[in-house]
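TICKET #2291
ISSUE: user wants both folds in one file
ATTACHMENT 1:
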Amino acid sequence: MPRRLSPDERKIWGRVAATAKAINPPRQDEVDAPGEPVAPKRRALPKIAQNAQSAAVSFGGGLKPANTLDGSWDKRIAKGALEPDFSIDLHGETLSSAHARLNRSLAAAIRAGARVVLLITGKAAQGNPRLPPTTRGVIRASVKDWLAASSHSGHIAAIRNAHPRHGGAGALYLILRRAR
């Protein structure tokens, strides 16, 4: 949580803010009341629900809420008893090549009738002075947005963090819906 401004800082900030001009001023139809712009409507982003052992993601529109799986799935993941039917390795790819590979491989996994896909994203680069310090890799940070926007989002029932034996923080399980 960001720190609050002191009264002196608030006074200075008020003077600075009064001199600022909007880069893209709101159109007249976007203004609710004089001087109060209405925030533009944005596309829904994935909603993240935290579980004790894993994180689940649901997407607006095509997917059900985050906890569409029964508890046996989470128990199997926690024990390390889940065996992936298909594996996608994005480790070491650039962002654009990883995105393309993810789409191609996910389409192949769906065609093959896979139920559990192991998605290897790689861990964050630790100790690299050229990169800013992060808690997760760039590909890992982008994957959930890619999946939410992809044409395959309707096939994904849930996303869970992988068990340490399958890559832990550097991998995800994609649980696909059963073919009907």
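ATTACHMENT 2:
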Amino acid sequence: MRKLTAALINRLKTSRRVAVLGVGSELRGDDAVGTVIAREVQAYTRFKKTKSVKVFLGQTAPENLTGEIKKFKPTHLIIIDAVDFNQRAGVAKIIDTGAELGQSFSTHKMPIRIIRDYLYRAIGCQTIILGIQPRSLDFSLVLTPGLLKRAKIISEEITGALNKAFPK
């Protein structure tokens, strides 16, 4: 089992409903990695016909979806975003939600920590922030080839964890 899958399975042990929020601009190359991964997870949830997982495509304005997320009433929220760790492109890390978040390369206006804190106060959901190191944020409508490959692997790891949490 992959390390990320195992960490997600561990954090989703008590989950009953999981919201997945993909963040990032589709006009800024690798900044779209959160949205690309969320779309892959969305395809999985449609295939599985699960009502326990709902995907939200926040793109550059994830704060606009907080009302919909609150209506869904998730016990857990996974936020996927491009984050600069100063590591090689494609490195994925679960960010400690108690820590201040580092520089996010996303073009959304509201910092992820504010959205995380607001949703926690509103519905008490546990939040998992998954950051992925981008390679390029230049104007582009596609991810760099290496990051596109990693996005597919990361989405498989997330769906593997969700499949374990909700096997039906």
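RESOLUTION: both attachments delivered.
EXTRA DETAIL ON ATTACHMENT 2: Strands lie at 18-23, 53-59, 76-82, 92-95, 126-132.
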